[in-house]
Amino acid sequence: MEITIRKAKKADAKSIAELHKKVVREVNSEFYSPEAIKEWIKDISETNVIYQLHNSDWIVAVEDDKLVGFGQYSVIDGEIYQINVEPNFLKQKIGKSLYDYMEDKFKIAGKEKIFLNATLNAVGFYQRLGFVRKGKNAIGLVNMIKMEKSLRDSQ
Ligand SMILES: CC(C)(COP(=O)(O)OP(=O)(O)OC[C@H]1O[C@@H](n2cnc3c(N)ncnc32)[C@H](O)[C@@H]1OP(=O)(O)O)[C@@H](O)C(=O)NCCC(=O)NCCS
User: Fold this and answer.
1) The CATH number of domain 3-154 is 3.40.630.30
2) Which of 9, 44, 66, 93 is the most buried (most CB within 10 A)?
3) Among 22, 91, 97, which is best to mutate for testing ligand 1, by the most ligand atoms less than 8 A from CB?
4) How far apart are CA 77 and CA 1, in angstroms?
């Protein structure tokens, strides 16, 4: 399997929104109430992704032309907003590849820490990548765990 990570383009927005909804329905739904999932999916759309392409950094993981994952982050803010992997491609290091690409960008920019709000199902994944828990957070009904990783020891 040959996976390429590259910056997202406007033409990716539709597939990103579709993949995001699929991930929320099939993966996140195991950890959240049907009400939370409904509220979450309501805000996911191609238009919303296009809008956000301008105010954050987006990358995609593609196999041939198929979208198998994406990530959203902001180097300026030192924060990762999300990493999502196609449910049929989990545990094949696509999430880690997306993360490694982003971590590199934070390091190049001289950031000392990366912050994120992890969904409950992804806490173990981020711990595996060196993040530690820093508390709780919530967006509406969607509870999350604040996490951070220091980049100082790994430069
Ligand atoms: C979390 C997610 C991105 C992980 O992607 P993935 O491609 O399956 O992860 P990888 O294969 O790159 O895994 C990297 C390491 O983390 C571990 N890992 C992956 N998912 C894990 C999980 N849910 N819990 C604990 N460990 C996990 C893997 O076993 C692997 O460990 P190893 O290095 O010892 O082999 C994926 O499950 C997903 O898209 N989840 C739903 C969306 C979501 O909630 N994203 C987070 C939003 S903040």
Assistant:
1) yes
2) 44
3) 91
4) 33
